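Supplementary Text 2. Reproducibility record for the structural model of the 349-residue chain.

All settings were left at their defaults, and a single model was retained for analysis rather than an ensemble. We include the record here because the model underlies the residue-level annotations in Supplementary Table 4.
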Amino acid sequence: MKTILLIEDNEALRENTAEILELAGYAVVTAENGKVGVEQALATKPDLVICDIMMPVLDGYGVLHIFNQNPQLSGVPFIFLTAKTERTDLRRGMELGADDYLTKPFDETELLSAITSRLNRFQHLKAEYNLQAEGLTEFLNDAQAVGNLESLSADRRVHTVRRKQDIYVEGDEPIRLYFLKSGRVKTVKTTNAGKELITGLYHPGDFFGYLSLLTQTAYDDSAVALDDAELVYIPKHDFLQLLTRNAEVGQQFIRLLAGRVSEREQQLLDMAYNSIRRRVADTLLHLHEQTTADAPLIQLSRDDMAAMVGTASESLIRTLSEFRQSGYVDLTPQGIRVVQPDKLRAANW
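Retained model, structure tokens:
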């Protein structure tokens, strides 16, 4: 529910306007003068301010000046109320940064229309979206409103992919972005010698397949479901709109994607410069961070883990055995349990 701060010294007008706003579904905070209004705003930041110009103690110009100077309040949509006799002074308020004005007397439709217009114009994306919950749908809905992206696809069906099924194959032309809702997916590159290298391991809440969309080139790896997985497809056209049509939407979308890019770069650096023990340890720690109290084991085949590390399966198995003897991990038929992550992280190889 949006909160509106109403600053008006005329008690009857203040109460009548507040009643209209509450009936329209807004939470309303009222103040009888500018000083009280600023105090109310500092206590609870409003989504929009409706403020009379001519008031005792602190007038509307003073209120707007304080809002502009205060980082906590700067940017809040601001609508002035003005009598017809004050129209000549209105220019001063607009120059100070007011977003709109209403001339008294005003009717209910005029008031609500002005509020809706201002709130829509000043709607912003959230700082964070929980992609492991329903954050993707929330982000796409907000992106449509903020960026005027009405043509974003309304089809956000969940597509089921079976375990070991290819999602895309190296050399395919990219036609969509993939979002993993449940299950796990690996991306794999095959060397000229036929050796597999896992370039990414994706979990619920992750995007994948976007680098080829950005470069407009064929996929240089393949994506395979490690478990039965659920995917949401974002068509290429929508992907490009999210990046380019609106600066705020594009920046937020890049932030949602960027973590995987930096992770992949770090993986390649580690493979190039770290010892086999360090690479295995870092891979185990990375996978351990993704386990839960209900599912504490790392369940990944030795071949897949070796492909993540960038080594032969025999070298991986030998290193895991050394870690077990040192007490860092437990090896069971069901999976691997990291029992001393701090020591594994601190070990110097």
